Amino acid sequence: MKRKEWIKTICFIAGFFLILIPLTYMIRTNGDIKDIFVGFYGEKEDTIDVVMIGSSPVYPYYAGPKIWKDTGITCYPLSSNMQRPKAAVHLVEEAEKTQDPALYIFEMRMYLGPDERLTQNMAYTRGVTDNMKYSWNRIKTINDLVEPGGEEARYTYYFDIFKYHSNWKTLVLPSQMVTFRYEHQDPLKGAVIRDDIGPSEMADYSGVTTRQAIPEDQEEVLRDLLAYLQEKGLNALFIVSPNTMTEEKQSQYNYIADIIAPTGYRFLNLNDYYEELDMDFETDFDDYGGHTNAFGMEKCSAFLGEYLKTHYSFTDKRGQKEYESWDKAAELWEEQTETAKKIILDKKARKEFKVIEEE
């Protein structure tokens, strides 16, 4: 092939990918998780103090705008539904590209079940991989989370447009078009306010002192994560968000706490602080003790913000010009939270409780 033909070929390939990448970003399914990740990439560099990593017990529990208003600490989730713990290290690496957080928070609920259970629905993997920008780290994440010859071929993860090509009609939506660079600030900084109600009963097992091992594969993942964080000199806090507890779960969290303790990192099980949180299991949950609604989010956010202020050293950045978007987010969060709380109380009065649909 002549030199001119080589140049034409290279230019064609480069042009193809210049079109493919933004097209793929825009055509990815919209929703809360996409908004969270796009919003993270849209944040100014080195302005996030705390990055929260974990499954759905993150973004409906902890509102960055609330924590900001109370403490001046910027806190943002890199969270997705049923997020596999194996993704944690890769998400830290992704966060480090644009931010220099003083603290990483890891939600531990997903460590109680074997990873194999989470591979039975690959949407739990795609929640992470399909919402990462194209990069070498994304390829590493796919290689780590997707086995060759699995239910869905790896190439559909490398080029997720194969999965979402039928969404082409959504390209005309402004909410999709603004994601052409996969960078667009989330007005609520990753928080998702829920206005449903599903009452539960408090089950306080904070006095349980027994230990029960977690699945071996998840223990290995946790130990690898701890080693990685220590090697990189990164600070971390490991938490368990309020939910309907059992003695078995409490014993497993005690086991996790023992693994974490020698590293010097803190472990915080919020289920040991129902009184301090003022949790109301009849009102504060969206789905019968599984996830919080607007009432529960407000309480958990206030508690976590105070905990961060008390146990760590952060600079209060309120009033600084480059953080004006956080002030706006706090105002919007307050407004939407008050609306959601009224809806919840109305549903409670009418006993219009959430209907859980089976997957």
Describe the protein in words.
The protein is of the alpha/beta class. It has a five-stranded parallel sheet with strand order 2-1-3-4-5. Helix 12 links the parallel strand 4 and strand 5. The protein is globular and about 75 Å long.
Q: How does the overall form come out from the CA principal axes? A: globular
Helix content: 40-55%
**Total number of β-strand segments?**
5
User: Could you name the ranges where pLDDT drops below 50 across 5 or more consecutive residues?
Assistant: none
Summarize the structure.
The chain has 359 residues and is an alpha/beta fold. It has helices spanning 3-27, 32-42, 64-71, 88-96, 115-118, 123-129, 136-145, 155-158, 161-164, 174-177, 216-232, 247-260, 274-277, 294-311, 324-349, and strands at 50-54, 75-79, 103-107, 236-240, 266-269. Strand 1 (50-54), helix 3 (64-71) and strand 2 form a beta-alpha-beta unit.
What topology emerges from the helices and strands here?
Blueprint: H1 3-27, H2 32-42, E1 50-54, H3 64-71, E2 75-79, H4 88-96, E3 103-107, H5 115-118, H6 123-129, H7 136-145, H8 155-158, H9 161-164, H10 174-177, H11 216-232, E4 236-240, H12 247-260, E5 266-269, H13 274-277, H14 294-311, H15 324-349
Parallel strand pairs: 1-2, 1-3, 3-4, 4-5
